[in-house]
Automatic annotation (TrEMBL):
This is Coronin. The keyword Repeat applies. Residues 5-69 form the DUF1899 domain. PROSITE patterns: WD_REPEATS_1, WD_REPEATS_2, WD_REPEATS_REGION. The keyword Cytoplasm does not apply. It comes from Nicator chloris.
Amino acid sequence: MSWHPQYRSSKFRHVYGKAASKDKCYDCVPITRNVHDNHFCAVNPSFIAVVTECAGGGAFLVIPIKQTGKLDPHYPKVCGHKGNVLDIKWNPFNDFVIASCSEDATVKIWDIPNQLLKRNITTPKKELLGHARRVGLIEWHPTADNILFSSGYDYKIMIWNLDVKDAVLSNPVKILDAHKDVVLSMSFNTDGSLLATACRDRKIRVLDPRAGTVLQEGSYKSHKVNKVLFLGNMKKLFSTGTSGWNNRQIALWDQNDLSVPLLEEDLDGSSGLLFPIYDCDTHMLYVVGK
């Protein structure tokens, strides 16, 4: 008589990551030493972009995906910011356009050439001047082409329309002024009709970006939120942060009710931030520790 276990065995149970060989890795990339809590890296089907250590300003590298192995120390950079680059994001509609924001309170849009970079790119396609203080986050709208959201240390989220012909823009289409402290994280739902934010005042907010109104606001005391993320079109939010005892913690929320999390779990007592990354195609959620 054969014995069948009551539970379904997980297909991920004995899966282990294995580091690629050196010639398949990106070697000798001088990653920034900035302590700002961000990814400092952005990838699309053509390129990998990495914020790099740079004297007297801010710069990032754009390396073709296929160009693995050791990076030439004199490899050209994209440089034009007067302060450290704090965030970079590829345009979801165009693999050859990338946005960057910096401590110099500007956002710049860059055209990346199709072939290998031969020299430094110093002139941006567009420059966005609206924030009074450094800009820490940028996010492209997922369904409307050429709409960019930027969030700064002036507590404002600005919406920019990049379809206009001017090279320098100083008037955003809209300013979302719902936060009383620095926005730590921004995330769109699948169709871009809702924007979730995590703020330094420990609250998660769900906003209607068109109207600029706050639809939901959660101030759950025992979860100090750092990063928040929409889980595709599941109408749920995922956040990482710390508990009242300063343990690293994850929480799952219903987007229509932020009063109490659906699930809350302590992970460990380490101090580094947790970055959530969600893959809509496989419904896998990755949590990366800094």
